[in-house]
Amino acid sequence: MTPVTFRERANLDIGTHKAAANDVSARRLHKKRAVAAAEFSAFESTRDRAREIRLHTLAHLDRYLGEFADSVERLGGNVFFAADAAEANEYVTRVAGEEGVSLAVKSKSMVTEEIELNHALEAAGVEVVESDLGEFIVQLAGDRPSHIIAPVLHKTRQDIGSLFRDELGVDYTDEASELNAIARRHLRPIFLSADMGISGVNFGVASTGSIATVTNEGNGRLTTTAPRVHVAVMGMERLVPNPADLMVMFDVLARSATGQRLSVYTNIVTGPRRPGDPDGPERLDVVIIDNGRSRVLSSSASEILACIRCGACLNVCPVYRVVGGHAYGGVYPGPVGSVLTPAMAGAEGWADLPYASTLCGACQEVCPIRIEIPRMLAELRAEMGKESGFGWLRTGLAAYSRVASHPVLWRAFLSAGAVFGKAAGRDGWIERLPFHAGNWTDYRDLPAPASESFRSWWRKNRAT
Amino acid sequence: MGDYRRIVSRVQLFVTCLVDGFFPDVGRATVRLLEAQGCEVEFPVDQTCCGQPAFNAGYRDQARSIAAHTVAVLDETEGPIVVPSGSCADMLVHHVPDLLPDDPAARRVADRVRELTAFLVDDLGVESLGRSGPDVCVTYHRSCHGLRNLGLSGQAETLLDGAGGVDRRELQGTEECCGFGGLFSIEMPEVSVAILEQKIENIEASGADVVVGGDVSCLMHIGGGLHRKGSPIAARHVAEVLAGES
Amino acid sequence: MQRETFLSTVTAAVAWSRLPELSETDPGGLVPDLSERDPVDLFCDRLAGIDGVVHSNRDPVDVIAEVVRAHGARTYLSWDSEWLPFDSSRLAPLGLDRIESAFEPGARSETQAGYMEVDLGITGAEAGFAESGSIVVRSGPGRPRMASLVAPVHVAVLERSAVYGSLAHWSTARADSISDAANVVFISGPSRTGDIEQELTLGVHGPKHLHVVLI
Questions:
Q1: How high does pLDDT run on average in chain B?
Q2: Interface subset of B 145-164, CB within 8 angstroms of A
Q3: pLDDT tens sequence across C89-109
Q4: In chain B, what percentage of residues exceed pLDDT 70?
């Protein structure tokens, strides 16, 4: 049976080698971030500034979107506003048709995963090849990415060696450098002959129409340089007002994501090839996508749109570490996904995601934008509790609330607990409880209630 | 925030629901610690719970009802309100005023709330307690809400290190969540326990006989996991260890 | 969708948004304190730390000759001589074939097919960031993007006086200049990936070797 809840999906992966690989990698990335953060003396103030910039942009998003579109068009680029995935896919497919594109190469982009652009283009007869090494592996395997910046965190080198042997017809190797060389050889002619390059957008700059893509491999640069047509697909929230603000984002993004001071290629494209330029794309189309984002903006989860997709909240999250990315079901895993997915798509099917957290707060602590993820998780629980599958809590909590709001009932409750504690506890521990309480005792022992409550002791010994 | 060092005499004990019903020893130890510092401890008898279980589960009306009661009870008292739990203190300081925006008493109460170890170290200036009790080898787990939401920064460790007869070992990953998460522990028990296993590995690797924390909720989870696997390691609240009761 | 319809939806959403209040306090400086280090020394250390090779106070032609020998390079892609901070006619004795990089729109695939064979890319760099070991490479007439991207070895020549303390130092003076060219890139070391078990591997899609000559 296909798992439909977070708990079911998580239980498929907990304890597997996939989850273990995920845990090791997430911890390693987290450690690298900590080193980079400690070393950069301006890090905390830069985070504060980055938060200001992102929240300011969201508060004036309509204005900055208009300014950004004007800037891109002034440079000779085209801008298309897509309300949803269908409109975006239809537009990109139309551009491919106009330009006679048969092969498109893509650099890593979460938003194109979200709208399933590859399916739409392939249905229209356009071959789409992922060029980020991790995404290339995911595409070959027919799998899904499990981490925002490290898509194959869940795969071992042996998994990848077998995959390349089976899909690319090469000899088996599990040497990372050889696997890498195989991918380079395979992808190089594709880059140089593709008619269309499709990239995501890390940041768009409203005042200049610039588009920043940040990669380590160089695929982002190749994708936006070699093909004749560059299509940049951008979630509508991914703007900053001006170039100085962009630099602030760069100063926190790579440090938070991988612990690098800057990624290898921090690439800024401002319009298509200009007169006299020796190379670069002739045509640039920027597709700006809503697809539920205006719904998020008008909700209690507005702030999650300030996210810059570094993945730091995943790496530090105790839940993500033990379950991996696939348990989250949607495109965006981890704490950010637990807020973003239900806020974008609605409660149906996703209402249990806000519960996939201990509210430990580690995510907010490492977020470069200091996004209040735990606050939003708690608010989404308040909004979606009924549909979460945890409705059984309501009866118990309603009763508990009544009891805990009346001291007389509370005293009676504690007295009953003391009686139960005397009767039930073998060595003071309870090993088995019925109904949902069994969710505790199936996995842990529960201390029995005390035979004398604190207040009872107080009354006998201290009360005057 | 006032400086209680000069004026301390009377403090209010908000003992928390779990201590009241499950861990009264922690309450008694807290009373002894405070009295040893010259505090006159009062226990507002109509207190119940801070409302956090309902709040974190998303049941705000239910949480509000409990919080309103607790605020009304505490607002009738005077002096600092000492709580032997970082998590419940965080609830009273941060979330209750948000739940009751129109109730000025919620803000007044929030301003008086102190987590126990922070009260001892920061407000009373205690560093060494003159503990009398059996020698014990401990390791300390920093529970999340006290650490991140209240900004506790090692007060418990300071007290443990200054107490006689306590050999404290470092706990690898002490700032990582234990996986309890309130009702999360029964909503998603497999995930909760998978996180707990990592915590237990680190506790065992520390070589300590007792894992100490500032929140009985996390300790109930950690202790329950240790007991289920037959581990000899016990889970104890920092107040109990400081009072020499373990 | 019409731009107006889209933006009016956003305007409505902004009006309903529940964004946190911003604190009024100035977050303070964005420029890291690097006062203990000479920028050029720091640049050398940091670039070496991310697997770049720095050649300080060397003749670029000597460095290129060494690189050519070490890699058995036969062809190269380069910026035009007027954009390079050294006399590139002195490269002639090395016997390299220069691959043409500028093309008319119709000749793209033909030109780019030739890139499969490029051994070496030669460019200038308009600035460096010491703190991150980065170089700033700007495209434009006579300065193809591919020269810093497509060959397995990239040699960039940078003047010492153009080394800034950090990105933030550069940003203060130069951030707005990003819109002066269709492409500006900050390159920090050779192409790398950690996608396979986070094992560092160099030269995935971009150059595997990055040499920066400081003059």
A1: 95
A2: 145, 148-149
A3: 999 999 999 998 878 878 888
A4: 96
Shortest CB distance from C204 goes to which of A157, A184, A251?
A184
Structure tokens at A300: 């209690």
Quote the ipTM score. 0.96
Contact B144 A360 (CB under 8 A): yes
Nearest CA in chain B to A459: B45
Distance between CA A11 and CA A25 in Å, rounded?
A: 20
Give me the total of CB pairs closer than 8 Å, taking one residue from chain A and one from chain C: 295
Contact exists between A and C (3 or more beta carbon pairs < 8 Å): yes
**Chain B within 8 Å of A362 (Cβ-Cβ)?**
yes
Kindly report, residue by residue over A220-243, the tens digit of the pLDDT.
999 999 999 999 999 999 999 999
Cβ of residue B10 closer than 8 Å to a chain A Cβ:
no
Distance, first Cα to last Cα, chain B: 33
Long-range contacts of A385-389 (CB under 8 A, 24+ apart): A385/A351, A385/B57, A385/B58, A385/B59, A386/A351, A387/A347, A387/A348, A387/A351, A388/A347, A388/A351, A388/A352, A388/A354, A388/A355, A388/B58, A389/A5, A389/A351, A389/A352
Q: How many Å lie between the alpha carbon of A203 and the closest alpha carbon of chain C? A: 13
Compute the Cα dihedral for C75, C79, C80, C83 and give only its sign.
negative
In this structure, what token pair is assigned to residue C73? Answer: 């390079």
Tell me what the mean pLDDT of segment B204-214 comes to. 98
Q: Give chain A's end-to-end CA distance (angstroms, integer).
A: 63
Residue B1: pLDDT band with limits 50, 70, 90: very low
Distance from CA of A29 to the nearest CA of C (A): 9
Query: Among partner residues B15, B65, B182, which is closest to A405 by beta-carbon distance?
Result: B65
Query: C179 and A243 in contact by Cβ < 8 A?
Result: yes
Residue C27 has pLDDT above 80, yes or no: no
Helices B104-112, B60-75: inter-axial angle, 10-degree rounding: 70
Q: Tell me: the pLDDT tens digits for A163-184? A: 999 999 999 999 999 999 999 9
Chains B and C touch (3+ CB pairs under 8 A): no
